[in-house]
Task: structure prediction
Amino acid sequence: MSQISNAPQPLFGHRKFWAHRFGPAPFLPMSRQEMETLGWDSCDIILVTGDAYIDHPSFGMALIGRLLEAQGFRVGIICQPDWNSAVDFKKLGKPNLFYGVTAGNMDSMVNRYTSDRKIRSDDAYTANAEPNKRPDRAVTVYAQRCREAAPGTPVIIGSIEASLRRIAHYDYWSDKVRRSVLPDSKADILVFGNAERAIVEIAHRLAKGEKVSEIRDLRGTAFMVPSGWVPSEVWDAVDSSEVDTPGPVGHHPDPYAMEPQGNAATPCADGAQPIRLVSRTERLAAIKEKRAHTVIRLPSYERVKEDPVLYAHASRTFHLESNPGNARALVQAHGERDVWLNPPPFPLSTEEFDAVYELPYARRQHPAYGEAKIPAWEMIRFSVNIMRGCFGGCTFCSITEHEGRVIQSRSEDSIIREIEEMRDKTPGFTGIVSDLGGPTANMYRLKCKDEKIESSCRRLSCVYPDICEHMGTDHNPLISLYRRARSIKGVKKVLVSSGLRYDLAVRSPDYIKELVTHHVGGYLKIAPEHTEEGPLSKMMKPGMGAYDRFKQLFDRFSREAGKEQYLIPYFIAAHPGTTDEDMMNLALWLKKNNFRLDQVQTFLPTPMALATTMYHTERNPLRKLSRSSEHVGTVRNGTQRKLHKAFLRYHDPNNWPLLREALKAMGRADLIGNGKKQLIPAWQPAGTCGQPPKGGQIQKAVPGPRSGQRPLRQPSKPLATRVRPATRKG
Result:
């Protein structure tokens, strides 16, 4: 291998494997009995997952399984196996080609533990929400058991858990820097991001007899290699300290500017060689060719685990090399071997995306679960995913590291067909589409105005500190989709439940009007995350001015539609860069605007996120780093984290003693009292915080505090309630 592919390979361009003659299975088999019913003597590929099996494209094992089935392979699934031995990993026999291992739709540590490192009492991806059905760091454990079950069989790991651990990373749960998941799992290949192209290519190449150790040229893959290995002699290694950094983003050069082409000149009369003018096109081609054969060497695992500045530098470099259009390969030493990361995968085309989502999914849970309820499925069973990716770049979010910044959108026709299929085939459909959305509901079909500019961009966000002048913000395609969706026969209501980016929405008042008039079920989720500039700058989130403009339009169009509707804002406590004063000011804003948050979210440092880097290193990777660069304050102490949560729930009497103590220490005792502009009262209700109840009965003005927001849990009531309808204008 001399060069990594620089052009996307057609996802469905391979000749189908011979087993395609069996046709699609009603469900991918989870037992030998199901295999025998299908007429199979073996599986070509076995997928191992920490989730219950739901045959729907919103669940990774089903999407990858059906995609591989469409390529002609026989695919079996082992769900939530007993990891204490290899027995469960043998129940479908030995796969002919490879094991594919995933922790599931969520990182197993995020799935199992709260932001306070407490074990959750349930699991949304398990039948009847039963807890403890997967191990900690499930990818590593499952991969090791696959090795035991079938020695010599290739093991391919993937999913968000593997993606977020592909290099050395800070691990919040052990409070240390851990090495890449590759050496711990002993997997042959790690596929990251949008893995469809890579996994399909791996399957076909293994089927043709190619050794897994020879597959080294696929985008979106990582693997272990000997120290100093490069694909060929034409490759150069560059130390990460030499990588340029993004400064202020000005006007991009016109990619269509015409420049005179230099001609090969003849020697001068005196024999001197004249200067040849090299065109911009030639220069760019030479640079592109050189980049295609360049790998950036990150500081080793051994160095970053001991040096926070080097860790922050490695994190910054990693994120700068995330654009598929210009990203270079990365390598990081782990002892005597290297972890090699090829550039990120190319996004799927609209046609490919449509085809993946229109494979023959049963669109229900596997019959083996009977009448058991799987909360994650109950939440999304009547929703439709319309896009992937997010160009917001929020530092606390893992979407960028996993799905990428380039938006991948399905066609309107494909989405409509899925709604019709859901109407006709999904049990329990009552005419309500619960969500048309994705990671961000209103990024559908938004993209850079020019592909050449997009492929050369190295910004960490397209919308911070302001929306890039090259970013398209036309919401008309989404308006068209909404109108067509709600006109489908048998559809009564189409809701938008995914969070939306309000700073983009205000660019299109017509979109807000359409949304508010037809697609809000009384409440709409948005995520300002904070009100203060300090934490917002570390989150890469817009200021509250954009929120105010959106709220003004939201309220106006709600009134015009004759509807009483409210915004549900999400806020994060204890984010890096947040002070006690910041949280106090946020609490005052909440009270002024009559918000009483039911559930609150405390910052959870997920692997490889930029905010996690801030938390671990107390440095700011959004800027060029040095030993003397900006210090970022972090909230680590349990008492202080509790205080920041308490400010978000200032209305809870159980939090008042802690808040009184803190306000006095901050010199803000003036905020204690019964005045309209004061935050908390000086008195304590009976039955709270150890106070004796009146008449033996506990009296609470509001519910007691709850843990941080749990992923993929649909609350039974709004996440934010109001004392009364908002009267504030603007």
Residues 58 and 707 are 26 Å apart (CA to CA).
